[in-house]
Amino acid sequence: NMQSIISRNGLETPEPVKAEVKGSVPSWLQGTLLRNGPGLFSVGNSEYNHWFDGLSLIHSFTFSGGEVTYRSKYLKSETYKRNIKADRIVVSEFGTMVYPDPCKNIFARAMTHFRNIIPDFTDNNLINIIRYGKDYYASSEVNYINQVDPNSLETVSRENYRNHIAVNLATAHPHYDREGNTYNMGTAIIGLGRPKYVIFKVPGNASGMSLKLKATSFKYYTDALVVFHHINAYEEDGHVVFDIITYKDSNLYNMFYLHNMTDETDNFINANKEFSPPFCQRFILPLSIQKDSPKGTNLVTLTDATAQAVMQDDGSIYCKPDTVFKGMELPGINYNFNARKYRYFYGSRLEWSPHPNKIAKVDIVTRTHIEWQQENCYPSEPVFVGSPGAVEEDDGVILSSVVSSDPNVSPFLLVLNARTFEEIARASVPVPVHMDLHGMFIPSTGSQESS
Ligand SMILES: [Fe+2]
């Protein structure tokens, strides 16, 4: 059943295995889908408590001449090596303290870390794959990143942000510009003061990290919310428009405790009735505000917008978002439209359950969506890859790694037409594949030159 595939330990497939392709993988699709996620949930007799604690298992689907190969390797982080050597879990994770304090939830524990000037974090970088310059790193929301060879999946070396820049940790979800530079946000925690956010830029053509600070002259605020993922942001006629996935509380984290995730489905649904679903919300910040702008009225002047920004008596701006869609997570876009006005985003449908079993495409203009699903199948975060020379935003394919709880259905890499969500091909592999979190498509150099 579904529960059995969530927390089972993954197996490495260190040598590439050929997939059996049904349908036709486009010949222009050349490169590697490199992905990350938790793969090992117990070491010796000790087990992790939380799904986000599992040890990183990196895997890849490589596309060449219509053929697909698969491989996977555990990230050889210091955390992995220490745990394996001890044959038990000896490094604390966010949801699993080696000396558990049951009175504290994940957030309380994180704050304890912060207040104590942060002991060393785990380097189990299980969340995402990021690119700095020409190098690829496994990442999580800590001070360490581990470089990974995208072909062999070998762990190359560990980097500590703190040796480069005055931050205590940085996000696992940076952004990139068209020149190949990477932008990320770090958090600097000094004593008992309020944490400071630091935006930094890593040049695409050189090593080293540099500071880049940005200040605004008005204070924008909204109701309290929890955010894990941003969809896109852009400027339009003197406004900043940004779309994010929001929750009204942090219940989602609690759902990912393994004792919840491996519970019988009926119990799980009952226990998580209070789950607050993800909302895709659009915020619009007008930039051309003056101190004498009228108070109490909406200052957003974009004609097709319903999000509002209203100046309060104290001069701050209260932002009321527009809910674009409900029940979608792990968002992705055609990245050529990053920081530009765009129409479509892709993601995993997430309603009552933390196990996404559908992927979908949302049209922000019409507020409609289309879906792909198959019984007993769990597709990963969808990744958009554009057709060569594409002009239309949705001219391309969607890639998703799919695992099934049906033992008769092998794991497969799904290729959809991004416009229609019709299946173009699936590449089934004869080895185990784990459920993952995030990743990126790395075009092969040859196909970049030809496109
Ligand atoms: Fe994430």
TrEMBL record:
Binds 1 Fe(2+) ion per subunit. Keywords: Iron, Metal-binding. Signal peptide: none annotated. GO terms for molecular function: beta-carotene 15,15'-dioxygenase activity; carotenoid dioxygenase activity; metal ion binding. Fe cation binds at H173, H229, H438. It comes from the Eukaryota. Pfam families: RPE65. Its cofactor is Fe(2+). The keyword 4Fe-4S does not apply. One of its GO terms (biological process) is retinal metabolic process. Belongs to the carotenoid oxygenase family. This is Beta-carotene oxygenase 1, like. The lineage of its organism: Eukaryota, Metazoa, Chordata, Craniata, Vertebrata.
